Amino acid sequence: MNWPTRARCRPMALAAAALTLLLLWPGSSWSNTISILGSTSNGATTEFTVKTQVLIIMTLLGLLPAMMLMMTSFTRFIIVLSLLRQALGLQQGLPTRIITGVALILTLLVMRPVGERIWEKAFLPYDEGKLTLSQALKEAELPLSRFMLAQTSKGSLEQIAHLAQAPAVDDPMKHPFTVKLSAFVLSELKTAFQIGCLLFIPFLVIDLVVSSVLMAMGMMMLSPLVISLPLKLLLFVLVDGWTLTVNTLVTSVRTL
């Protein structure tokens, strides 16, 4: 195993070792008063052991990236920004970490109203003991479902409901959460490609013009990218491209 591979595997190995130590640590060493998660049944509250709580929390943390990708507009933002980078010809000049960071910041900006409603309607009542875990999850699902349905096209929702053989409903909110989530993801992919196509057109025109001029001048040995890249960057800066792109992405999301 070479050094870069060992460097990438080291954080995962450390995390696995830490989780193993937490799970194998003697139960008597944990304080019996520690309680994070619990369940309520017939008025009686049952608290999970600390080892079970740690396992549940680590599992939820592992699912957070997938939740961020599937249930928010992160998918739309990251695809559009990646297509923009490709249209500009900056595969090496614009790192993936920068693209991911910008998409994450825009996602937090757009999802803030949804997060606040989930915090107020689900987490705080559950933390105060007013709601059970199942009730809190249902309350958290409502604003998230409204947000997803606001971005979902009617055709995508009907197609997914047909594939899932879901019963016909008069209100889209009554669809199963898996149906709404699948339709939302398809709509996000479609919207991202539509925006990316519009961003590609002006830069594609520049590439075609530069290639035609170079061929007319007999300079076929010169790469068109050498000439078109500065022109595309100049055009992008002159029209304040980053502001226009961010404004287009944010306003394309229908908030609650």
Features:
256 residues, disordered N terminus, 9 helices, mainly alpha, two-stranded antiparallel sheet
Word description of this protein:
This protein has 256 residues and is mostly helical. The chain has one domain (71-251). The chain contains 9 helices and 2 strands. α3 packs antiparallel against α4 (96-127) and α6 packs across α7 (177-216).
Task: Describe what is shown at a glance.
The chain is mainly alpha-helical.
Taking all Cα atoms into account, the compactness measure Rg is 25 Å
Unreliable residue runs = 3-7, 18-36
Overall mean pLDDT stands at 81
Please identify the oligomeric state. Answer: single chain
Spatial strand arrangement across the major sheet:
1-2
Q: What's the total helix number?
A: 9
What is the number of domains? Answer: 1
What structural class do the secondary elements suggest?
mainly alpha
Shape: elongated
Number of strands: 2
Helix content: over 70%
Element-level helix/strand string: HEEHHHHHHHH
The separation of the N and C termini measures 50 Å
Strand share of the residues? under 5%
Main beta-sheet strand count, sense and barrel state: 2 strands, antiparallel
Helix and strand layout, with pairings?
Elements: H1 3-24, E1 38-41, E2 44-47, H2 50-71, H3 74-88, H4 96-127, H5 133-151, H6 154-163, H7 177-216, H8 224-238, H9 241-251
Antiparallel strand pairs: 1-2
Helix pairs in contact: 1-2, 3-4, 3-7, 4-5, 5-7, 6-7, 7-8
